[in-house]
Amino acid sequence: MKKSLLVILTLLFAFHIQANNLVIGTPTISGRTISFTVQWDNSWRVTPAPSNWDAVWVFVKRQACDQPNENPWLHEVLASSGHTVTGSQLQVDLPADKNGVFIRRNADGIGNITQSTVTLTLASDVNSDNIGLFGIEMVNVPQGNFYVGDGRPDFNAFTDGNTDNPLQITASHQTNGLGANTVYQKNGYGSTVALPATFPLGYNSFYCMKYEITTAQYTAFLNTLTYNQQLRMQEDPNTTPPTSSIGTIMNQYLGYSIEIMTPGVSTINLTPAVYGNDANNNNVYNEDDDGLALPVSIRVKDFLAFLDWAALRPMTEFEYEKACRGPVIPLLNEYAWGTTDSYSVNWYYNRINRNTKNEVLNIAPLGPQNFGMGMVSRVGVSATPTSDRLHAGATYYGIMDMTANVFERAIGGYNFDYSGFTTVNGDGNLDSYGFANVMGWPIDYNNRDTYETYFMRKGGSANSSYNATVSSRQVLNWGDGNRANAQGGRGVRSN
User: Fold this and answer.
1) Residue 50: cis peptide before it, omega within 30 degrees of 0
2) pLDDT for position 7
3) What is the SS3 assignment for the chain?
4) Domain ranges of the chain
5) pLDDT tens digits, one per residue of 205-263
6) Residue 4 has what pLDDT?
7) Are the CB atoms for 280 and 355 separated by under 8 Å?
8) Distance between CA 51 and CA 142 in Å, rounded?
9) Angstrom distance (rounded) from CA 396 to CA 142
10) Longest Cα pair distance anywhere in the chain, in angstroms?
11) CB of 62 within 8 A of CB of 131?
12) Which residues of the chain carry a pLDDT beneath 70?
């Protein structure tokens, strides 16, 4: 069969200039090499604090062409060498598992990345296979000490184990393990088994998605699944299978609408459905105002499947607080932007170009505080070309919306044994039913459709400000996995 080239641009959605405007060009293939252009705005690498950089995580999917409607899209492992980028600004970092590359600055600098050509080498020739290329914006969180807890007297907050004071996580903790829950929570509200050195306490460096998972990214993920994998991702596999009529809503909450654009076929020759976004409800899909850059609310099984598919992993509660606060001493009841300042706005009436990539606020709040509005906004909506950390709502390291939009899922909570979770990243491949299958991840193999185990909810402000501060643990084990509950999040990746 003639070689087919698939470029799923929805995952490479070019955000407004107020975000980073990532643009990846159509790739060309020669033998086992893939070449494409990349550019984005507002990039950085700095040696002074926060001593970090941004990057783009790029990975490749591959589908055998003999039965393209039934063959799964498999994650492509890259070759050990042969990955290059033109120009003098960028470098290509290949991690040990070779499941993708990080493209980032090779020296200190702040500003836009001009168009450069990246060449990746696959482990084998493409031949007639279909190829998909994907990119996600990431932020480096460097190795170092940091604090958990902010001194709040809440009965469930992180503390030093004896008082309400914060606990500093050091190299010694990561090397030797943190120990029993009474070490980091005065009432023992943590893992039922001591946390060992293999648990990601946050001291070591990692990458974090700059934004929460968007509807465009999640739709792109759905469109690489087989029919049987899509079946388990549906709202109800029995009443709304992928064979449903055009326009069947799969996920319609908080102002967006993911729908079946072209129904699948469940006869002898299975054909997966094609999904699209239709926030404006005009039956024309993936238009500029169809909410492509809104954060998606998804169940735990959907969340873990997306992360495994993207070769990422969930973050822990400890990593969440480090990604927000950095190494600085905590401030009681602080938000991700580093202060307790808040400025409530009427989120519905103060959004201009609603649901588009150009969505902005017609005021300048202190962070993206859609508290109690029951809706979400474009990821990174508060950032402008001139905004500082406070008004952009950015974390110490430049990560966006960590105390805004949907609740962030993080490994933690209490009354569960989550000591076996490690830094193992997803391998990019799901099982035949579309489930994540990574050893050590919170997967209940006996109840995979409805389970909700040892996940903490952090930073969501779509419902209220009560849980939006960095160190809040008020909803330790809350949630039933329902998509309507404004629960989503983002992935991280260990180096």
Assistant:
1) yes
2) 42
3) CCCCECCCCCCCCCCCCCCCCCEECCCEEECCEEEEEEEEEEEEECCCCCCCEEEEEEEEEEECCCCCCCCCCEECCECCCCCEECCCCEEEECCCCCCCEEEEECCCEEEEEEEEEEEEEECCCCCCCEEEEEEEEEEEECCCCEEECCCCCCCCCCCCCCCCCCEEECHHHHHHCCECHHHCCCCCCCECCCECCCCCCCCCCEEEECCCCEHHHHHHHHCCCCHHHHHHHCCCCCCCCCCCCCCCEEECCCCCCEEEEECCECCCCCECCEEEECCCCCCCCCCCCCCCCCECCCCHHHHHHHHHHCCCECEEHHHHHHHHHCCCCCCCCCCCCCCCCCCCCCCCCCEECCCCCCCEECCCCCCCCCCCCCCCCCCCCCCCCCCCHHHHCECCCCCECCCCCCEEEEECCCCECCCCCCCCCCCCCCCCCCCCCCCCCCCCCCCCCCCCCCEEEECCCCCCCCCCCCCCCCCCCCCCCCHHHCEECCCEEEC
4) 23-141, 143-495
5) 999 999 999 999 999 999 999 999 999 888 777 778 899 887 777 777 778 899 999 99
6) 42
7) yes
8) 7
9) 11
10) 68
11) yes
12) 1-20, 343-349, 362-374, 445-454, 459-466, 477-482, 484-485
- The residues, ordered by sequence, that sit 6+ positions from 425 with a Cβ below 8 Å of its Cβ are 97, 99, 311, 312, 313, 438, 493, 494
pLDDT of amino acid 346: 61
Residue type, 28: T
Write out pLDDT tens, residues 117-167: 999 999 999 988 999 999 999 999 999 999 999 999 988 899 999 999 999
The domain 23-141 having CATH identifier 2.60.40: the answer here is yes
- What per-residue string of b and e applies to 253-287 under the rule 16 or more CB within 10 Å gives b? bbbbbbbbbebbeeeeebbbbbbbbbbbeeeebbb
Residue 167 corresponds to which amino acid? Answer: L
CA 320 – CA 322 distance, rounded (Å): 5
Beta strands 407-411; 315-316: pairing state? parallel
For residue 57, what pLDDT is reported? 97
Q: Determine the Cα–Cα distance for residues 243 and 249; give it in Å rounded to an integer.
A: 12
CA distance 406 to 489: 7
Q: What is the reported pTM?
A: 0.93
From 154, 237, 221, 193, select the one nearest 469 (Cα to Cα).
154
Cα–Cα distances (Å) from 343 to 319, 346, 368, 408, in that order, read: 27, 10, 9, 21
> In this structure, are residues 132 and 120 in contact, taking their beta carbons and an 8 Å threshold?
no
Please give the pLDDT value at position 38.
96
